[in-house]
Amino acid sequence: MRLSWCVPDDAPAMAEAHAQAFTPGWREDEFEDLLDGEGIFGLLARDDAERPVGVILCRIAADEMEVLTVGVSPLARRSGVGKALMEGALTTAAQGSAKTCFLEVAVDNAGAIALYQSLGFERSGLRKAYYDRGPEGFHDALVMRRPLNAPPASPYPDR
């Protein structure tokens, strides 16, 4: 797997990776527009055959970073792609002006929640009916936060 910084020309690959992770995925023009915004940065993960398998897009405003979206192809999940994307984004934000990172995650996405907790994120709120899942209806989202000047939480609290 290889990570690279995203530029507007990467919008097709970003949209492809996002569509593998979400239905519906974000469109190319949405990624292009966002990448032109102030404080926006993204990373794209590609497999050994150079196919896009994951994407993260973030915004830094003042001293906060928000993860706008992060998605990994189902075939690449549980292989470290999501963790690598998150760690790359967190490192980038911590080297800049950001002191805290926020994100939203569907309450039923146990895998993502476990990943975020392993990276030091804590639950800080709930957004009712945040995600529109079409015929399934609306689903709640957890709001999670992590200070960027603190190391990830240890999986061994007694140490």
CATH class: Alpha Beta
Main β-sheet, in a few words?
7 strands, mixed
Q: Low-confidence runs (pLDDT<50, min 5 residues)?
A: none
Counting DSSP H or I runs of 4 or more residues, the number of helices is 4
**Overall pLDDT:** 90
What fraction strand? Answer: 35-45%
The CATH topology is given as Aminopeptidase
Structural class: alpha+beta
Query: What is the CATH-assigned architecture?
Result: 3-Layer(aba) Sandwich
Number of domains: 1
Q: Tell me the distance between the termini.
A: 32 Å
Helix percentage range: 25-40%
Q: What is the rounded Rg? A: 15 Å
The total of beta strands comes to 7
The general outline is globular
Care to give the gist of this entry?
The chain has 159 residues and is α+β, with helices and mostly antiparallel strands.
